[in-house]
Amino acid sequence: MIVNMGPHHPSMHGVLRLIVTLDGEDVIDCEPILGYLHRGMEKIAENRTIIQYLPYVTRWDYLATMFTEAITVNGPEQLGNIQVPKRASYIRIIMLELSRIASHLLWLGPFMADIGAQTPFFYIFRERELIYDLFEAATGMRMMHNYFRIGGVAADLPHGWIDKCLDFCDYFLIGISEYQKLITRNPIFLERVEGVGIIGTEEVINWGLSGPMLRASGIQWDLRKVDHYECYDEFDWEVQWQKEGDSLARYLVRIGEMTESIKIIQQALEGIPGGPYENLEIRYFDRERNPQWNDFEYRFISKKPSPTFELPKLELYGRVEAPKGELGIFLMGDQSGFPWRWKIRPPGFINLQILPQLVKRMKLADIMTILGSIDIIMGEVDR
Amino acid sequence: MIIDTTEVQDINSFSRLEFLKEVYGIIWVLIPIFTPVLGITIGVLVIVWLEREISAGLQQRIGPEYAGPLGVLQALADGAKLLFKENLLPSRGETRLFSIGPSIAVISILLSYSVVPFGYRLVLADLNIGVFLWIAISSIAPIGLLMSGYGSNNKYSFLGGLRAAAQSISYEIPLTLCVLSISLLSNSSSTVDIVEAQSKYGFGGWNLWRQPIGFIIFLISSLAECERLPFDLPEAEEELVAGYQTEYSGIKFGLFYVASYLNLLVSSLFVTVLYLGGWNISIPNIFGSELFDFEINKRYGIFGATISIFITLAKTYLFLFIPITTRWTLPRLRMDQLLNLGWKFLLPISLGNLLLTTSFQLFSL
Q1: Cis peptide before B230 (omega within 30 of 0)
Q2: Of A52, A125, A372, B54, which has the maximum CB count within 10 A?
Q3: Cα A150 from Cα A16, distance rounded (Å)
Q4: Cβ within 8 Å of residue A73, ≥6 positions away
């Protein structure tokens, strides 16, 4: 019997269409059909400068927005060999880790809702609202912050933000232990999730998976440790990994990653250069304005593009450890403001490839569990 | 010349007195039927409100607050909305099966209310087979679900209907065995006798203490019969949209909704009757005063009857807290795990329970 789990679906997985061939309750085959959310992001990038393109990138992975912005500015920074000041790097790390926690939280809610427990969905939004408040104070927007810039961030942290963030960290550790008590030792949950969707170590590397799927199958590969980017080396944290490779292992890896992120955030907040109450942006405004840009030529003319960063004629593949996997861009610069080619390597797209193989021989109810544990988001799968 | 009595009756039936007597007879039959029906309807409204308030509390939000004071009329508002929706029929499905399906599910559950005792003489039908009427008639409900699933001409609904029927059938047997153990303890299947048998030692006379394993198995099986979480795979939203209810709209969907809560209410009433002592006050006679005597209902007439109804409902609604909290806390069992639980785990345990009960009864004789 062929059943179509259509693009419209009550669970929050985005517009993914699955054509499932069933034999009673067993699944024989599953064919995912993508493209319902394709917006031509890569083509649009060829006609935008980096600053103009930044609002687009948050719409790839709209739950972990800081990572998409980070990769968008990291690429040109590496092309143009631009150094990032220490304080900006610390602020970036704090924002990235907060975004990682937010993404994992919003993975946990629909995952539990698919399994049947609808209450954790409300609990995660309670915590995510706190992160939204922090983001709104620092960047001005709750979700689609336009915060990272080439060479740093757009604005400094407001007065008192660091104390609020430390309070959030303390509160969140209590929240995580609440989830552990409610979910991790629940026998019904364990029955649904243990042994479901097992991926072996060899297979994971062959398929090219990344992120928590890789780490749940026994490979300790975390780009934050491998690439030594930003300032992650200055903090003391562990790579979370498990050995079994089933959905329970992926769940444990993500919960562990949330705890590690809190550790990183706390260390970064305490060690941020320039101290908590120094707002360097104010200092910038005190300087005399650049007279060239206040000249006659640059006033009252709106269509002239502002002086932008010119991408040199080189090519580069940059990557970050997004919560869903390895998010990368392949950037070919043209000696102009617009890139020649901007290819996005979305983690969800590559991770989704393994779905048909995993659901063979499983029951119908396991499809949703496995899909949930892969943690895809259609914004970046389709871009 | 003997006047034929039938002729006398015929002549008498034309007089006004006889006519009034007949009308009186008809009314006296109809009132006991309509009063429980009214009570059940209000009871379902209360359950819906209770579920929404409790789930809201669990999820750190406020429940309904706009429909009526404190949101108590929310269920009525939902029902009225469903009444006004368009009544869809699938174009190529079996229209007759589609329409009759929900009705069968509701009718079979409503019939079970006739054996629930609310007080000493307050039961619609004091049958000798009492509790087994409930079990037998509620087994008709899966037929209704199958009819709905098949008649919808939709693969999702069909799957859902099949799952629902399989689940209902598998969990009836542990349910029946638990009820059988209770009947053994009370020497009768009549619900009134079962409650009477629990009235001796007040709080300690409840069947809950004499049948703890049976209580737990009954709880799990009745949750499975009502298709509530953790057993609601037939209507699992994420997998099958809404299972056998997918194609329904308007008041037919409302019937399914109501059937689910009716089933829950009748299961909880039976828990109260079978395990929690029914209508007895259950405060042991330690004060020595005659006021708290458990035979209060027999002696104090209308006041006693009111107290009995009140106590039954209070126990039922206090018990209802458990299924509602369970629904919003636990995840859902997969279908094969669900059937495994019913056949391989609950059935042997309930058989063992029956064996234990029988041996205790034999030894005490």
Answers
A1: yes
A2: A372
A3: 34
A4: A50, A54, A148, A149, A150, A151
Distances (CA, A) of B361 to B181, B184, B195, B228, B354: 10, 8, 18, 34, 11
Pairing of strands A26-33, A315-322: unpaired
- Supply B261's token pair: 């809560």
Overall pTM surpassing 0.90 (yes/no): no
Which residue, among A199, A320, A182, A328, has the nearest Cα to A255 in the 3D structure? A182
Q: What is the tens place of the pLDDT at every residue in A18-69? A: 888 888 778 888 888 888 889 999 999 898 888 888 889 888 888 888 999 9
pLDDT in tens, B168-202: 888 889 999 999 998 888 888 888 888 888 777 66
Above 60 in pLDDT, residue B240? no
Q: Residue B238 and residue A114: Cβ atoms within 8 Å?
A: yes
* Range 281-340 of B in CB contact (< 8 A) with A: 328-337
> Residue A320 forms beta bridges with which residues?
A327
d(CA A179, CA A100): 17
Contacts of residue B216, Cβ cutoff 8 Å, sequence gap at least 6: none
Q: Which of A2, A5, A27, A119 to mutate to test the interface with B (most CBs of B within 10 A)?
A: A119
Q: Which of B58, B155, B334 lies nearest to residue A365, judging by beta carbons? A: B334
Nearest neighbour of A116 by CB, restricted to B155, B159, B331: B331
- Compute CA distances B280 → B194, B205, B294, whole Å: 12, 10, 6
Interchain proximity B155–A366, CB inside 8 Å: no
Chain A contact for B233 (CB, 8 A cutoff): yes
Looking at beta carbons, which residues of chain B come within 8 Å of A16? none
Number of neighbouring beta carbons within 10 Å of residue A307: 11
Contact A191 B329 (CB under 8 A): no
Residue of A nearest to B332 (CA): A116
Low-confidence ranges of chain A (pLDDT < 70): 10-12, 275-308
